[in-house]
Amino acid sequence: MPRYWxxxxxxxxxxxxxxxxxxxxxxxxxxRVGPPADFADPDAPPAEPEGARRLASIAVxxxxxxxxxxxxxxxxxxxxLIAGVVLLFxxxxxxxxxxxxxxxxxxxxxxxxxxxxFVVELFFDPVATAAVLVALxxxxxxxxxxFPVALRAGLDSWWWLFAARLVKQLTIMAVGLGLLFPELGxxxxxxxxxxxxLVVRYALVDEAVVLDHTPVLESRRRxxxxxxxxxxxxxxxxxxxxxxxLFLAQLTGQWAxxxxxxEDPLARGLLVTLFDVLAVYNTIVLxxxxxxxxxxxxxxxxxxxxxxxxxx
Length: 312
Hints:
single chain
């Protein structure tokens, strides 16, 4: 008997125990991995309930412009699910953050909002990101992922993605530590270049952890494997999505100022959360690069680690 089964929809590697618990259904995207008779609990509900929507599968464009356009279409198409997940976790935290800054006067310190936002993102963003990635993986195969399924996948992946991101950030910060010493002058570029290289090489850590179930300490190596040969696509697509998001942020800021919303912390929290919804565009762009990287010229799946899926 095989040790692992691969989900035909999200391509996750699943152990027999997980498939026994779900009667042959992938616990992340509800796709049917095998007939119920091959696993325990044959009376479990089917993977595709009656009336489930089937959508046309999506092919990843080869060009950066095509990926940016496809990401925009996916953002609009998946907006209800994306907005629901992001609002659920980030609206309370962003609103609380704005109230804290308003009452304690932390806004007078330029770095205070940035540091607090970083902490909020570090702890709460993994759930939303994992949920979106699972939904996108299903969509690429023509499957509409229900909100509860995406949310459950996000919660299941929280610890692993949180740990992997923390390790990634600490590694990048350690390499660029010399940037904190202004007395080094122009020599600081020696630290900036390798730091930027790691940012690109580790750009697909989220996808490696959530969709490939790569162990935390292996996720950076897996991301580097996926990025190999596509570094300029990561840079170009990342820059393109950043420009688009900055343009939207400028428009949103001007609109909020005209309506006088920037004076109210509750309104600011809502505006920041709405921008977080739009910022998922960058996640979608990187996901498309990941999805393309996993398939070779004949559609075969790229190699990946064969370790226990829940190993640290």
